[in-house]
UniProtKB/TrEMBL annotation:
KW Hydrolase (keyword) present: no
Cellular component, GO annotation: mitochondrion
InterPro entries documented for this protein: Aminotransferase_I/II_large (IPR004839), Asp_trans (IPR000796), NHTrfase_class1_PyrdxlP-BS (IPR004838), PyrdxlP-dep_Trfase (IPR015424), PyrdxlP-dep_Trfase_major (IPR015421), PyrdxlP-dep_Trfase_small (IPR015422)
Protein name per the record: Aspartate aminotransferase
Further information: In eukaryotes there are cytoplasmic, mitochondrial and chloroplastic isozymes.
Keywords, in A-Z order: Aminotransferase, Pyridoxal phosphate, Transferase
Family according to the record: Belongs to the class-I pyridoxal-phosphate-dependent aminotransferase family.
Organism: Cudoniella acicularis
Amino acid sequence: ASTWADVPQGPPTIQTTPIADLNFLRKAILGITEAFKADSFKEKINLGVGAYRDDQGKPYVLPSVRIAEDKVVSQLLNKEYAGITGVPEFTKAAALLAYGPDSSALDRVAITQSISGTGALRIGGAFLQRFSPGAKTIYIPNPSWANHAAVFKDSGLTVEKYRYYNKDTIGLDFEGLIADIKGAPKNSIFLLHACAHNPTGVDPTPEQWKEISEAVKSGDHYAFFDMAYQGFASGDTDKDAFPIRYFIEQGHNPALAQSFAKNMGLYGERVGAFSIVCADAEEKKRVDSQIKILVRPLYSNPPVHGARVASTILNDPALNKQWLGEVKEMADRIITMRALLKKELENLGSKHDWSHITSQIGMFAYTGLTPEQMDTLAKEHSVYATKDGRISVAGITTGNVKRLAAAIHAVKP
Ligand code: PMP
């Protein structure tokens, strides 16, 4: 028999899984893509995508990225390996972007380039598995980006959930969240979405973040921030970084996964960073050495092109300014589409409260529609999104928002 005769067929893998219940979602997203493709209706709408689209519904390469790429190419750089922790000008600028120019963390942060946000989470998982002094249990929100559970499980951590979303209010279950942080065994690890929570679009307020910081501290827990959408949520990279900067001010020394997939549109270039804020420069040196020992057998060293592009944008003042404007444009388009969808629903005479559509933030909106209503949206209105009621706001355009609102109004009159 073949050596691999007993390897079972796995379920189809999908890349942008956004919810806690993986199997449910696998079926849901696969169903959507297939059904969307098979639908011959010209005005069909796909709200399942996890990437930004412009107002024509097309993938978008940022003009600042085009310019940076030209600059990188015209320098005729060689293709030698980067060091284990990547392109130093990139990681330095990435830390500056996340922590801010006045941060006390900058002199004591151990940072490495990573294979985008996913790779950063995976390195973090491996580091915590090896060195975390607690029970090596990580708590992720319920629901969370579905890959979180898989990444941390494969890193050898035990994955638990904390309460996050309240489906009755279509908002944050703040009491549940605080109770679960306080109730967890001491020295647990808490994975926190820094901004634009995926999949719900529901973020804590600054005041709530302050209480979360207190609760994490009172339990002697460790905070691991996933910041996959810095700038993409509010349009302002400083505002979106508030939680992590606040935690550091309060004396936490968190870990951080950064991604440049969304805010620079560098999805396929896989540009990210993983960092750990250390107590001091001496600790940083020790942590740095162990990060290298972890990364070396994983992939030796990261790819250089995307990091050079991001580094060019971050380090060139004029280009940086242009990029910040472009991030804001993307965020603003999404915010505008939220407002437009709500307004169109109200214009149609909808009696329901749709304010959650505009109070939520980032790429995704949790509509509160039931699986049955989502089914009808697809079957009768050619509007495709996951059964949990999540829609990708990036898929809404000035051209399709009226039809979308009419479809939603029809399934939930
Ligand atoms: N974390 C969250 C919450 C995400 O939504 C994503 C992307 N969908 C990622 C991390 C990682 O994405 P990437 O590996 O493309 O940077």
